[in-house]
Amino acid sequence: MTRAVVGIIGGSGVYDLPGAENVRRERVSTPWGEPSDELVFGEIGGTKAVFLPRHGRGHRLSPSSINYRANIDAMKRAGVTDLISVSACGSFKSQFFPGLFVLVDQFVDRTFARQSSFFGDGCVAHVSMAHPIAPKLSARIARAARDEGIEIAVGGTYVCMEGPQFSTYAESLHYKACGFDLIGMTAMPEAKLAREAEISYATIAMVTDFDCWHPEHDHVDVASVIQIVRENSAKAARLVGRVLKDFPQEREPCPVGSDRALDNAILTAPEARDPELLKKLDAVMSRLNAPSA
Ligand SMILES: CSC[C@H]1O[C@H](OP(=O)(O)O)[C@H](O)[C@@H]1O
Ligand SMILES: Nc1ncnc2[nH]cnc12
């Protein structure tokens, strides 16, 4: 059996994990460089939790300079099987108003200045991203929200822009016309890397603004975004706490294959693989390298 460990990556305004017990902080080194901060290990309701503030404490890191590979690799080394991402997002739909939580189910990646794979020359792999969100994890979050009386919309497409500037009016209208629901700067390549590392992934989007398409809200400003996050952070902590309290001890098989994404994904012949890259992939490929695999 694989013991379930829930990772939480906190976004803008979410720099700690209230409600955790037996807390200890540890700096975890990875072959991909330094994660955004120390990992916070703790327990909620008997479930092991590992927390990481995506931008680091004090919000030191910009979306483009976050080391997403180090963050996901560190989570993998910490034994994380299921990862909940909490993200501040702009909205393209009136029904997704500031303060509402949305369970994202699709992503569009418009980033261009980030390392987006653990794999590459010497070990080429292509994992499926058709269904980027782990449905059981997402359903657990929806159930926890219902049980806590927290309003949450289920389903939404999040477009990830490079940033750090917010969108122009024309871009905002374009994304809206494309039918996208939400916009942020960090879910990609995080979700792709989680999939490569065989970690189940789900995003709780906290709507903070209407970007700039809305006739009554003609621009985004960080102060209002952070105010919305502050007003909703206790609700987010309660939601995550409830998910953890009701979490099963054993990792559940994932219907979209998050837990076995590397099966049939690696193209490079074993004898043609680069030993240096394989060394760096020790955590990401740990299941494939385990004696029982
Ligand atoms: C503070 S507004 C822009 C900032 O907020 C979001 O961060 P996160 O996804 O980590 O909550 C957005 O992606 C930008 O990084
Ligand atoms: N409107 C917006 N665009 C990009 N990232 C965001 N994060 C919060 N609001 C955002």
Automatic annotation (TrEMBL):
Answer whether the UniProt record assigns the keyword Cytoplasm to this protein.
no
Q: Which Pfam families match?
A: PNP_UDP_1 (PF01048)
Residues given in the record as phosphate binding sites = S12, R54, H55, S87, A88, T186
What's a Gene Ontology MF term here?
S-methyl-5-thioadenosine phosphorylase activity
Q: Where is the Nucleoside phosphorylase domain?
A: 6-244
GO CC list: cytosol
According to its UniProt entry, the protein's GO biological process terms are: L-methionine salvage from methylthioadenosine; purine ribonucleoside salvage
Q: Which CDD domains match?
A: MTAP_SsMTAPII_like_MTIP (cd09010)
Write the Enzyme Commission number(s) for this entry: 2.4.2.28
Q: Which InterPro entries does the record match to this protein?
A: MTAP (IPR010044), Nucleoside_phosphorylase_d (IPR000845), Nucleoside_phosphorylase_sf (IPR035994)
Pathway annotation from the record: Amino-acid biosynthesis; L-methionine biosynthesis via salvage pathway; S-methyl-5-thio-alpha-D-ribose 1-phosphate from S-methyl-5'-thioadenosine (phosphorylase route): step 1/1
Report residues binding substrate.
Answer: M185, D209, F210, D211
Coiled-coil positions? none
Q: Where is this site: Important for substrate specificity?
A: S167, V222
Q: Give the signal peptide range.
A: none
Question: Which SUPFAM superfamilies does the record cross-reference, listed alphabetically?
Answer: Purine and uridine phosphorylases
Catalytic activity line of the entry: S-methyl-5'-thioadenosine + phosphate = 5-(methylsulfanyl)-alpha-D-ribose 1-phosphate + adenine
Give the record's keywords alphabetically.
Answer: Glycosyltransferase, Purine salvage, Transferase
What is the protein's quaternary organization? Homohexamer. Dimer of a homotrimer.
Cited function: Catalyzes the reversible phosphorylation of S-methyl-5'-thioadenosine (MTA) to adenine and 5-methylthioribose-1-phosphate. Involved in the breakdown of MTA, a major by-product of polyamine biosynthesis. Responsible for the first step in the methionine salvage pathway after MTA has been generated from S-adenosylmethionine. Has broad substrate specificity with 6-aminopurine nucleosides as preferred substrates.
Tell me its family: Belongs to the PNP/MTAP phosphorylase family. MTAP subfamily.
* Name of the protein this chain belongs to: S-methyl-5'-thioadenosine phosphorylase
User: What organism does the record attribute this protein to?
Assistant: Methylocystis parvus
Gene name of this polypeptide: mtnP
